[in-house]
Design goal:
alpha+beta, Gamma Fibrinogen, Chain A, domain 1, 2 domains, 3-stranded antiparallel sheet, 4 helices, about 50% helix, about 15% strand
């Protein structure tokens, strides 16, 4: 009986040990299976990590390339900025030069205009130096016969026709011719007519107050001579050594004096005892009364 019990006990212990061994084997198997799964997962993780690393490396390379491109572009932009700055400096210099050239051009134009004016003035002076101012200049150029000539008084660039009369070795500039018996020209004229002149120097005429002023204001001294013929055909003459006519602003005021003692007509214009005192008198016409006489 005891032997059977011991045997059963031993069998039971063996069975327990076997069961324990089986449990241990099962645990090891599970651990091994878990290890295999872990290793598989680890490999997957490593594989994924490798792929991520490759992608990251590729992205990093892209970033590095982009950065290198940016650096290159920045360098190019910097270089372009430097070139632009240099061009701006050159442009400013060119603008300054252009302004100077423009200013010099304007100055040159002004100088050319002034030079042209000077040349024109010089030409006029040269022309006037070759032209005759009055009948005396015509005589100096060799003319000896009385007649109508062209003279160029001061400020009269176009010239004016005038009667030159030769008497007693002198050629006189005649500014008034009036025939009492064969009058053809009306001498009752307006201020403007007497200002500009009228008539024909080959017949009856008035030279014009502007021309008289131009003649007598040019720095030359003029004598005033009057020749009168009476109804019997007898001629008388009178000479005054000083004669000039002022400008229109001064109403063509007459300066007359120095009655010559050789005159045969008598001093009817400057004598203090005559009503026709002419020296210092302003010119008068039918439409402008500037004298002191009573009508």
């Amino acid at each position: 009986q005891e032997t059977v019990t011991e045997r059963d006990q031993i069998v039971h212990e063996l069975q327990n040990k076997i069961q324990q061994q089986e449990e241990i084997l099962q645990e090891k198997e599970e651990l091994l299976r878990g290890k295999c799964l872990f290793e598989e997962e680890l490999r997957e993780v490593q594989k994924g990590k490798s792929q991520v690393g490759e992608a990251a490396t590729a992205q990093l390379q892209d970033v590095e390339e982009s950065y290198a491109n940016c650096v290159s572009q920045v360098k190019n932009l910097t270089q372009h900025n430097e070139e632009i700055t240099s061009l701006n400096s050159q442009l400013q210099v060119n603008n300054t030069l252009l302004e100077n050239i423009t200013q010099h051009t304007q100055q040159s134009r002004e100088l050319m205009t002034e030079l042209s004016d000077c040349q024109q003035n010089l030409t006029q002076i040269e022309k006037r130096s070759r032209l005759v101012r009055d009948c005396t200049d015509i005589q100096y150029k060799g003319a000896t016969e009385s007649g109508v000539y062209q003279i160029f008084p001061q400020s009269s660039a176009g010239g004016v026709s005038v009667l030159c009369k030769t008497q007693e070795g002198h050629m006189w500039t005649v500014f008034l011719v009036r025939q009492r018996e064969t009058t053809q020209v009306n001498f009752t004229r307006t201020w403007h007519d007497y200002k500009t002149g009228f008539g024909d120097p080959s017949g009856e005429y008035w030279l014009g107050n502007d021309n008289l002023h131009a003649l007598t204001s040019g720095g030359h001294r003029y004598r005033f001579r009057v020749i009168a013929t009476n109804l019997l055909g007898e001629q008388r003459s009178a000479v005054w050594e000083t004669f000039s006519v002022a400008n229109e602003a001064s109403k063509y005021r007459v300066t007359l004096g120095g009655y010559s003692s050789t005159s045969t007509l008598g001093d009817a214009l400057t004598s203090q005892h005559t009503w026709a005192l002419m020296d210092g008198m302003s010119f008068t016409t039918v439409d402008r009364d500037h004298d002191t006489w009573s009508d």
